[in-house]
Structure formats: C-alpha cells, structure tokens
C-alpha cells in the first residue's frame, strides 16, 4: 500500500493540510482499480498525533525516508528557517527516491532543503518573487497551478493544492479514479489555465510624480495607440529615462506595462459586463477578438469566454 506522509510542521496552515487529508486520508478504495487506498500518516516534529488529523497514525521527521509520498503543507512563515530535522528528513527521503510535494508556501521548505535547485517550481503568486529572490537557483513560475518535476512537485496558492493532490491520484490510480474523487468533492477534475488568472492588477507608484500621473492617464486611454514616445513626452522624459523609471517603479518596461494593463482591462470588462469579446478587445486596445483570444491563451491559458464563465460577477 502506498504510504503518504502529511507533514504538519510547526507553522503549517490548516486549509492545505485539510485538502490533502481529504484527498488521501479518506478511504475511497471503492473507486480504486486495485481495491486499495493510501496509507496516510501524520508527520509531526515530535512524532505525536496532531489535533487536525485525529485517527491518523503519526510519525516523526526521522521516519520520512520510509514513506512513498511526502506532502509538505504550506507555511505561515515562509521567510523563517525550517526545522533542521525536517530539512534533513526531506533530503534523506529525496536521496532514496521518495516523491516530495510542497503545497503553496510549502515550496519554501523544499527550497530550503535544496530540493528545488535547478528545477521549475511554483508557489502562491504573492510569494513567488520572494521565493525567486531567496533561491535564485530555482526557476520560479508564478503563472501555473502546479509543477510536476517527477519526484518533486509544487503547487500554487490555496486551492491549487487540491488541483495537485487530484493530479497525484490520477497519476497513481488512473484518470477514472482521479475524476471520481473530484466528483465526490464537487471539484473540477482539471482546471484550465494557471494562477495568472487570479493575480490582481499591480498598484501604480505611490507618488505624485509625473510618471504616476502619466501611467494613470495611460490607463484611461488604453483603447488608443500608445507608444513609448507618447508616454515619454507626456512624462517629460526621454525614452531611456522613461524605461529606467518604469523598471525602477513598476518593475517592467513601457511596452510590457501597456500590454499587461490592456489584459487587466479586458479581464475587468469580461468580469463586470456583458460586452461581446469583440467589443472587449477594441475597448482594451487589443484589436480583434482573435487577437484577444491569442493573448489570453498565451498569458492566462484560457479563452476569454472560459475566463468570463469563471469570474463573472453579476
């Protein structure tokens, strides 16, 4: 029987722990082609049972090497140094070829153990820049729901943990079983797109500078031709000065910023209006419906219609 360790470390968060427990610890062997289910163990710092997971057998960090799959829950303190005993246990398990999963900010724990070095990984989009800064050897992707690197897997924020856990069931027991579990949980078996769909527009620079005023003006004129030259003139800067200021204050160049803002506007229009996709494309300065669909697919991994279905507010 496949042994799954749910690591409930000292800063573990309840939601992701509960989602993983719901998928792996609830016996649904009637859905399994083998007639068996996972053997789940709660792993705690001291090896004692955890109040969140009553009824589960318990184990300590030293026992991680004996597990088949290790699920590290998210941490409420991603910038804190994890327990050295946990890091040692994860490294030992990795060396023995165990499958290790980091849910949401649990990726910081895996990164601290060195398990994400040279790999692609994800975490909650709000924490992705910090993960990349603290661990430059990790290829952090903030626009996906989860990353499967074989024996090391990571998920994006919150409910993306459920997406990854269901994917593991499909991988272990087949699509029919994975879809059956999703149906029991009233959850999609597979969500299209990535977490880029859920990222809020970044705020403008907090200043009364000409740049802030220029960008505010540009946001109101996205349906018009906007060029670097036009923005630079309005800000009273040269093209080079504008590029330097924008990289320093908003983290991107002028053309990238314009494109990002147009996509954000298109998303807002799809969420809050009944306007046609063609009208949304024109209002956001993205041209035709075909162009809008192409940009949505490239940036968000979904069509405008699918996005509207998910996020429509009224």
UniProtKB/TrEMBL annotation:
SMART domains: HTH_ARAC
Keyword Transcription regulation included in the entry's annotation: yes
Domain annotation HTH araC/xylS-type: ranges: 212-310
Alphabetically ordered keywords of this record: Transcription, Transcription regulation
Domain of life: Bacteria
PROSITE patterns, per the entry: HTH_ARAC_FAMILY_2
Protein name stated in the entry: Helix-turn-helix domain-containing protein
The species this protein was found in: Terrabacter lapilli
């Amino acid at each position: 029987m496949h042994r799954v360790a749910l690591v409930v470390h000292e800063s573990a968060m309840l939601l992701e722990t509960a989602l993983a427990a719901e998928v792996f610890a609830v016996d649904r062997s009637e859905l399994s082609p083998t007639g068996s289910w996972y053997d789940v163990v709660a792993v705690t710092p001291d090896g004692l049972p955890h109040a969140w997971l009553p009824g589960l057998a318990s184990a300590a960090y030293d026992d991680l090497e004996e597990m088949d799959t290790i699920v590290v829950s998210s941490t409420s303190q991603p910038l804190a140094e994890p327990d050295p005993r946990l890091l040692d246990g994860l490294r030992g398990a990795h060396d023995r070829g165990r499958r290790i999963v980091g849910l949401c900010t649990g990726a910081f724990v895996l990164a601290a153990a060195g398990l994400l070095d040279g790999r692609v990984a994800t975490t909650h989009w709000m924490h992705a820049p910090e993960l990349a800064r603290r661990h430059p050897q990790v290829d952090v992707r903030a626009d996906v729901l989860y990353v499967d690197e074989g024996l090391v897997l990571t998920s994006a924020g919150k409910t993306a943990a459920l997406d990854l856990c269901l994917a593991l069931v499909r991988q272990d027991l087949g699509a029919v079983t994975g879809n059956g579990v999703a149906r029991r949980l009233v959850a999609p078996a597979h969500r299209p797109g990535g977490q880029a769909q859920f990222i809020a527009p970044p705020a403008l620079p907090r200043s009364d500078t000409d740049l802030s005023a220029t960008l505010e003006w540009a946001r109101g004129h996205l349906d018009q031709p906007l060029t670097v030259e036009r923005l630079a003139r309005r800000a009273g800067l040269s093209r080079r000065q504008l590029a330097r200021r924008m990289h320093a204050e908003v983290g991107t160049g002028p053309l990238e910023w314009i494109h990002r803002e147009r996509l954000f506007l298109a998303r807002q229009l799809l969420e809050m209006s009944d306007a046609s996709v063609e009208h949304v494309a024109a209002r956001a300065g993205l041209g035709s419906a075909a162009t809008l669909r192409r940009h949505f697919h490239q940036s968000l991994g979904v069509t405008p219609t699918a996005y509207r279905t998910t996020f429509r507010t009224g």
